[in-house]
Write a structure and sequence with these properties.
heterodimer; A: about 290 residues; alpha/beta; Globin-like; 2 domains; elongated; B: alpha/beta; Transcription Regulator spoIIAA; 4 helices; 5 strands
């Protein structure tokens, strides 16, 4: 490994900045890295920033890793690029390709400049290769992290979206459940439901599982937990929206739901009204208006 | 030692737990509550826990026990005003208090006790 002072790379970068940039653009067009970003001007801007920071990093002399202060600017550039790529939905290889496509122009530059000193060339090339590998690794890591952030945020949004508690009538609330119930969601449903029982003073809570694709023992257990918690708050629960297949599954699994259940939300609502001593009646047909 | 007051409202005993329950206090409450039921011949016991923020399995069992004991003494027990967090904790602890009646607030609790007493009396008449 050449010492920083030995490496001619910083000098070369300074001297051949323009040429290198042009070579890189051609390379990017070839590998599709430029197409990947979808915007030529943006790629150019990124490339210029990248090269500038590469010079700064090399000048700092920290060639063993890119964690040091000398590379902080470079890390920022890579953060920006990777994050933007991740949010736009590009693949990790397209993102890494942006950095990798610099390899050939750099090697070409080295070959032109120190091509006659074989051992020198080998050393410089090794250094460049190692450095680029580190940069790509870092890019991929940031890319991955940004994608994970997106997923986490979407999960959070999904949770918020999918657990509303609606007030159907004085003293009656309903929770239409959509999607599979896991312990995370059960917790949120439970909290929302109990809070709503307190605010509305509801006596009856209808849990509608029309939108729950499957009910296995675990989901049933989660449902029963919610029912038990609501009961502790002094509210009765009715489970509604049990589809024929689900009824069969529940019995086959030997799950005992031990709670009032109705096939449809309408049926559950009717039962709830009856329990509260209310009835729904047909209104007498309106008299024809005299002309 | 601090004590939880037991109030007589009509033929019901009202207990409002306003402090954090520790085990000794809980046992003392159970003890004095039973004594009071026998003394007054109360038909209902209402335990208001709306100010209670924390429960453990011991307190959870206490409610079950009080309900069972009061039933032996012919008094209906209703636990009222449980906080959502407390309800979730009890369920997570696996304590659904299936033998205990619950209501949202004191008002509803009182109505529930009235209904329970009426049912109990009706059954007594039929058997007689």
């Amino acid at each position: 490994m050449p010492k920083p002072s030995d490496s001619i790379l910083p000098t070369l970068l300074d001297r051949h900045h323009k040429r290198l940039l042009e070579d890189w653009f051609i390379q990017q067009q070839g590998t599709g890295a430029a197409v990947a970003t979808g915007d030529d001007a943006e790629t150019r801007a990124h490339s210029v920033r990248f090269l500038t920071e590469l010079r700064k990093g090399l000048a700092s002399g920290e060639l063993d890793g890119i964690e040091g202060a000398g590379w902080s600017g470079m890390r920022e550039v890579l953060d920006d690029i990777s994050r933007a790529q991740a949010l736009k939905g590009f693949s990790p290889s397209q993102t890494a390709g942006f950095v990798f496509s610099l390899r050939e122009p750099l090697f070409g530059l080295l070959r032109r400049e120190v091509g006659d000193e074989t051992s020198r060339l080998a050393e410089e090339m090794l250094m460049v290769a190692l450095l680029l590998d580190r940069l790509v690794l870092y890019t991929t890591e940031v890319f991955q992290k940004s994608r994970e952030d997106v997923i986490t945020r979407q999960q959070q949004e999904l949770l918020e979206l999918s657990t509303p508690v609606v007030r159907l009538w004085e003293g009656i609330v309903a929770v239409p459940l959509i999607g599979t119930l896991d312990s995370n969601r059960t917790q949120i449903v439970m909290e929302n439901l109990l809070q709503q029982i307190v605010t509305t003073g509801a006596q009856i809570a209808i849990i509608d599982i029309t939108g729950v694709p499957t009910v296995d023992t675990l989901v049933a257990q989660h449902l029963l937990k919610t029912v038990a918690a609501a009961r502790l708050m002094g509210a009765d629960c009715i489970i509604s929206g049990i589809r024929p297949q689900i009824a069969q599954t529940i019995v086959h699994l030997g799950v005992e739901l031990s709670v009032t259940s109705k096939a449809s939300l309408a049926g559950a609502f009717e039962l709830a009204l009856r329990r509260l001593g209310k009835t729904v009646v047909d209104r007498a047909p309106a008299k024809p208006v005299a002309e | 030692m601090e004590q939880i007051p037991i109030l007589m409202v009509g033929d019901c005993l009202l207990v409002s737990i306003q402090v954090d329950m520790h085990d000794q206090l809980a046992m003392a409450l159970q003890d004095s509550l039973m004594t009071k039921i026998v003394e007054t011949g109360a038909r209902g016991v209402m335990i208001d826990i709306s100010a209670l923020q924390f429960v453990d399995s011991f307190i959870g069992r206490l409610f079950s026990n009080i309900a069972s004991m009061a039933r032996v003494l012919d008094a209906a027990t209703v636990v009222v005003g449980m906080q959502p967090a407390v309800a979730i904790t009890l369920v997570e602890l696996g304590m659904t208090l299936s033998g205990v009646k619950t209501a949202l607030n004191v008002d509803r609790g009182l109505a529930l006790i009235r209904r329970m007493i009426a049912v109990e009396d009706g059954r007594g008449r039929r058997e007689a």
